[in-house]
Design a protein that fits this description.
Helix content is 75%, strand content 0%. By secondary structure, the protein is mostly helical. Helix 2 packs antiparallel against helix 3 and helix 4 crosses helix 5.
Length: 149
């Protein structure tokens, strides 16, 4: 994805966060961002939720399983974890920017909508079932991303 909005978001994110993610890796972060919103839906991140954030970082790095060595994927998992942690700490500033760019991405690539929905529900059900707050966040994300499923 190389729209001007995407490039601007990527460059701002790298500059502000100090991240070393490539544009391709950042695209993966963008795709998994809605799942992060579900994990932190109650507004606080407890020990169990940090575990899910670590899983989320691993899921993202696993997207590169065929093109990276185990050591490279481990380093990428760390990079994703630090990016997610930074996003949580700065969520109010970055949430709308990420969602807006992702919504535009989905107009070009609607085939990934199902993957995003699947990930949202997977992370919401990973704890002790879906909470009311998680369901509200999922519905809001689906509306913001214009996903009708």
């Amino acid at each position: 994805m190389n729209t001007s909005e995407f490039k601007e978001l990527y460059e701002q994110f790298v500059f502000k966060s100090g991240s070393s993610l490539t544009q391709e890796q950042f695209t993966t972060l963008l795709m998994f961002f809605p799942a992060l919103l579900v994990v932190v839906s109650d507004g606080k991140v407890d020990l169990e939720e940090w575990t899910y954030i670590k899983y989320l970082a691993k899921f993202m790095s696993d997207a590169y399983i065929d093109s990276a060595s185990d050591e490279e994927r481990s380093l990428l998992t760390e990079s994703y974890y630090h990016a997610l942690k930074w996003l949580i700490e700065n969520l109010e500033t970055w949430k709308k920017l990420f969602i807006d760019v992702l919504a535009k991405y989905l107009t070009i690539h609607p085939e990934v909508k199902d993957d995003i929905i699947e990930t949202l529900y997977m992370f919401s059900e990973a704890s002790e079932g879906q909470s009311g707050e998680e369901i509200k966040v999922i519905e809001r994300i689906k509306q913001e991303l214009r996903i009708n499923s």
